[in-house]
Every structure is written in structure tokens, then in C-alpha cells.
Amino acid sequence: MHDTLLKIDRSKISPEEWKTRCDLAALYRLLAHFRMTDLIDTHISARVPGEEGHFLINCYGVLFHEMRASDLIKIDHEGNVVDPWRGPDSVNRAGFNIHSAIHAARPDIDCVVHTHTSAGIAVSAQEQGLLPISQHALKFYRRLGYHTYEGISLNPDERARLVADLGPHMAMILRNHGLLATGGSIAEAFNQIYFLERACQAQVQALAGGQALRFPTEAVCELTAQQSDDEIDQQLHQLAWNSALRLIANDPVDYRS
């Protein structure tokens, strides 16, 4: 387990920010638990409650399975470090290019998750995108954006196109790249990325079977998507989040430290 080089100043952190730090660290660890990591690449970001234009993101180089609340770094819309006890090199600023676009354009979104999983990349490279062939996939029926690959996301001009391609949705497939999921809370973002990832896994395996695929009717597809929307409205994702936290509750080093 790593050790933080610079200790954070807890006296300058509000209880609300600390709660967000703990939840965000938990989400990093849960992505590791479900094997959605890519070494030190990909990111999850969350808004800092009560601080306009401030966000939390991982300390660059800390692996997801070892993330702690104290490892997360406060940054602004441009990815500049705000925490006075951190150096400017502790954040991969280029990695925040995607996140900053979404956060700036969508005040309803508090958390953004970006992954490079094998299944997610595979579906992102398939011309037809996510197929409506599983209950998990139907959660995103007509509720999923697509963004054409433009190279490593270093160009600030790409932000406008990312936002336009996401549209009103909470999730998006980044062509030839990976997955992006968001939420009005960290728990909701976890729900979105978990089911999008599982839908991609199911599609890859279904296509590998070499048999004809069966598609539900459009009416059933839309009904299932609406039922999934209702589950979010009923806060069932929060119940799932509370249960998932038990998966990392006994880690050798507490994510809340």
C-alpha cells in the first residue's frame, strides 16, 4: 500500500467535502473490485459540495484499489490544483479534459466516470454500438450518447463536441476508446457504469457465440428503459451502493482514511 507524500490539512476540509472524498475513494475501489481499471489511467471526478467550480480527482499514480479519501485532489475547471498542500504535478491535467467538459455543461451531474475496460473498448469499436439484446443494455435504450474518437483527449476544443454528443443522457460510448457514465450522485454514477459495463460484457460474449441474436420489440425495449428510469427515481441505486460498500469494508487500509 502506498503512502501519501503530503498529508492533507483536515482543518481546511468541510464535513461535506470529506463525505464526498470518502464516497469517491470508495467508488475508485469498487471499480478495482469489479476489474474496471487500466493501471494509473482513467479517472473518476466529483464536484466539491458548496464550492463552485471545484472538483475532486485521483492523485496521479495511485492505483484504484489503494485509493483513500486523503489521496483525492481538489482541482478547478482547467485541472489546476487548488489544494495548497499539493504540487501541480500530482494531477494528470490532460485526463480531466473529458470530465471538465461534462461538469461545466451539466450542473445536474455531480460525478463522472471514465473507463477503458476490454468489453467497453470492444463495443466502442463495433459499428452498431450497444445492441438492445440484454436487460442491462435496455437500461440505456435511446439513452446513450456516442462520441467519435479524436485521438488522446488533449485538445480543449473537443470539450464542446463531447458535451453535444452526450446530449441529455447520463452515459456515452467513446468510440474506439471506452465508456463514460455520470450521475447526480456518486451512487448513481456507480449504477450507470456498472450496468453499462455489464451490458458490454454480455454483448461481447453473445457475439462470440456465433449464433443469430434475438431482439425484443421496440415497445418492450422502451418499457424496460422506463422501468430502469423509475428505479433511479425510487433511489434503488442508493440501496445497491450501500450494499456494494460492504465489499470493500474490510480492506487492509480504510478508504475513508
Automatic annotation (TrEMBL):
What's an example Gene Ontology biological process for this entry?
monosaccharide metabolic process
Q: Which GO terms describe its molecular function?
A: actin filament binding
Residue ranges occupied by any Class II aldolase/adducin N-terminal domain in the UniProt entry: 22-204
**Which sequence ranges form a coiled-coil region, renumbered to this chain?**
none
* Family matches, as InterPro entries: Aldolase-II_Adducin_sf (IPR051017), Aldolase_II/adducin_N (IPR001303), Aldolase_II/adducin_N_sf (IPR036409)
Record-level GO cellular component terms: cytoskeleton
The highest taxon in the source lineage is Bacteria
Q: Which family does it belong to?
A: Belongs to the aldolase class II family.
The name this protein goes by in its record: Class II aldolase/adducin family protein
The species this protein belongs to is: Pseudomonas auratipiscis
